[in-house]
Design goal:
2 copies of one chain form a homodimer. Chain A is of the alpha+beta class and 385 residues long. Chain A folds into 2 domains: 7-150, Creatinase/prolidase N-terminal domain (Creatine Amidinohydrolase, Chain A, domain 1, 3-Layer(aba) Sandwich); 155-383, Creatinase/methionine aminopeptidase superfamily (Creatine Amidinohydrolase, Alpha-Beta Complex), CATH 3.90.230. Chain A is built from 10 helices and 15 strands. In chain A, the strands form 2 sheets. In chain A, strands 7, 8, 9, 10, 11, 12, 13, 14 and 15 form a 9-stranded mixed β-sheet that branches. Chain A has a 6-stranded mixed β-sheet with strand order 4-3-2-1-5-6, sandwiched between helices. The longest helix of chain A is centred in the middle third of the chain and has 24 residues, at 155-178. In chain A, 60% of the residues are buried. At the A-B interface, helix 3, helix 5 and helix 8 of A face helix 3, helix 5 and helix 8 of B.
Chain lengths: 385, 385
């Protein structure tokens, strides 16, 4: 077993969760989010694509039910000692096996918190879970309980977040060195992701966003690469990822002479990002950060070109997305605290003129404000080679 | 809009689904699997990390409900014309908006097939969906309906699968050129994934598996890279990915002199893979392929070192996994057909001696058997540089 955190750190995390469970009067938790399992025990896998669950009882005991392919994965990467296996078969009933496991650990008639809001628990499996536990125990939706605890990072986590920030900057440098007329997007993507792997980093929680020409207006990954034109725009969103901790960045780089519209949008994006940065501080809400962004954008007459959200928390995330709660959207009351890692992305997409301009940076919330984790100049990247 | 398939191809796919819906007496489908949306319309995004759904009515009309970040993504990548947006807010109710959309399209009191078994529909959102549609329409679990259609590939799909196969071989070559004493796993990963990006390929549906020394016994990705020792073993599982179509391979490569146990396990793995290949043919079941694998493994006294599954179907898959049904496990009655793409992986993990040996190849099921899509020699890779 090789863990990325000290035993003391894992003990602290478990105790924080046990306290939150006691407050909610939960006798146990059934976790389905890989993020929760990684945070609590180190268990590191994409095995959540199948049915699996981590139990934590109020007595502090962990137990994992998973498939045979993840037995050694749990042994090598986590502190979980009690690992049980369900087997694929036409008539396999892993939800019943989970109930039996919980019974074995004294969970009959218990009040059990369940992470229903989890990619690791599809709606189909959720129904089977409910059926298997019907009359056996009370299942209570405890989605978000661990997310809330995970949002504030410890010193040990911040160490990895800083590494992720450095890898994000390495990837940015690799991109800037390559971007130019005639260059293939695929080469840029290889260089960016390669810089992160070579630096000991991980796959990101979602694909890097890369799109040029009209597709620079997209803010998701899509299949199909192209070569950059002599005058072009390319939107990139990426994250340095280390021990699954993310530090994200976003830029729209210009090849050849920028259009006036690029410069107008960039100026608004920079002002909006600065306004967000001024509000990323303890005591401010996620909604206030969004409002700061919207005020600048809308003041520049760009209301129809911005999105309904302008960033989110980052942490140790698994696929399909590196986005963690809280998100910067209108009225979100979640209060920022020191130790939170927040990504602010200014996304401007003018479909009429097919002009894109994006700018994003990651910040660590500190006692008196924030500290940039991806410190690169806020200048429009123009490559006229 | 730039589609990766012809209009005729998309028409054929829609008609196949409409026929299957008619057979199941469904008036409409609510799809939550990104794979279904991509296959039917081209819609290419990781936006399924949030609530979104694609409607197909028995009248052949599509409509998508998604977030603002995916509006242009749907416009640029899919043939969907009716795109509706729900907005993030503390009190947002996208499931009700979905019901209103379906009402608008004539779906009141309809019998609607729902993809409940989908990463895009968490158990929490499934409950909200059921509540929103209660008394409005009948929701019927139609998980797997599109998966079943997707399993058999068309000529247009096989074109991309072949590209994926070539990219898998390119990645293999990049790895073999690098593997040796003192080499960092991160450099190997960068070279393999880089070969695929440079060739116009995509991120895989799950992370490549890379692990050496004791961690060569793992068959999932984990964070944390190391350098290879003078005598070492490294297990790699990867997929060439093109237009999201996968062709997977697996090898355990040896650095320095192999142990006798490596050679024993390799010989069994090769025989088992050959036995599977002899059974990957039209009319055979997925269970028969598994049985062929198990017979060889168990005949060599390796029953406790093999897994309970030895492969699966491959296609256009999104995160968190590239695995598609059917899977090769005991008794699986799914019958193989021409046009199916099947990955067979022989995984032997001897924990006692900490010896790993894996071998995997992808096959296209043809009219009279199969054709290897990742044709590389079945020899033990030994690098004694």
């Amino acid at each position: 077993m090789s863990l990325h955190f000290t035993t003391l750190e894992f003990e602290r995390r478990k105790n924080r969760l046990l306290a939150a469970m006691a407050e909610r009067q939960l006798d146990g938790m059934l976790m389905f989010q890989q993020e929760s399992m990684y945070w609590l025990t180190g268990y590191d896998t994409f095995g959540f694509c199948f049915f699996q669950s981590l139990w934590l009882g109020a007595d502090g005991r962990f137990a994992l039910l998973t498939r045979s392919a993840d037995l050694r994965q749990a042994q090598h990467t986590s502190l979980i000692e009690d690992i049980r296996i369900w087997r694929d078969a036409a008539d396999s009933t892993p939800q019943q096996q989970l109930r039996d496991m919980v019974a074995d650990l004294g969970g009959a008639h218990a009040r059990i918190g369940v992470e229903y809001d989890s990619y690791g628990l599809t709606a189909a499996n959720g129904r089977k879970l409910d059926a298997a536990f019907d009359g056996f125990a009370i299942l209570d939706d405890a989605s978000g309980l661990v997310d809330y605890l995970r949002a504030v990072k410890s010193e040990e986590e911040i160490f990895y977040v800083r590494k992720a920030g450095q890898l994000a900057l390495d990837a940015r440098q690799a991109a800037i060195e390559l971007i130019g007329a005639g260059v293939d997007e695929g080469d840029i993507l290889a260089a960016m992701q390669g810089a992160i792997f070579k630096g000991g980093g991980d796959y990101p929680g979602n694909e890097f966003i890369i799109g040029s020409a009209r597709d620079a207006l997209l803010c998701r990954y899509k299949s199909g690469r192209r070569r950059l034109d002599a005058r072009d725009q390319i939107t990139l969103e990426w994250a340095g990822t280390y021990r699954h901790y993310h530090a994200a960045m976003m830029e729209t780089a210009i090849v050849g002479r920028p259009r006036d519209r690029h410069i107008d949008l960039f100026n608004a994006a920079r002002l909006a990002l600065e306004a967000c940065a001024a509000n990323i501080a303890p005591g401010r809400t996620a909604g206030e950060v969004f409002a700061a962004h919207a005020q600048v954008m809308d003041g520049h007459g760009l209301a129809e070109h911005r999105l309904a959200a302008c960033g989110y928390s980052l942490g140790a995330k698994f696929t399909p997305s590196w986005m963690d709660p809280p998100m910067f959207y209108e009225g979100n009351p979640w209060v920022l605290e020191p130790g939170m890692v927040m990504f602010a992305h200014m996304i401007l997409m003018d479909s009429e003129t097919e002009t894109a301009m994006c700018l994003g940076r990651t910040f660590l919330v500190t006692i008196n404000g924030n500290e940039p984790l991806t410190g690169a100049p806020l200048d429009l990247i123009v490559n006229s080679r």
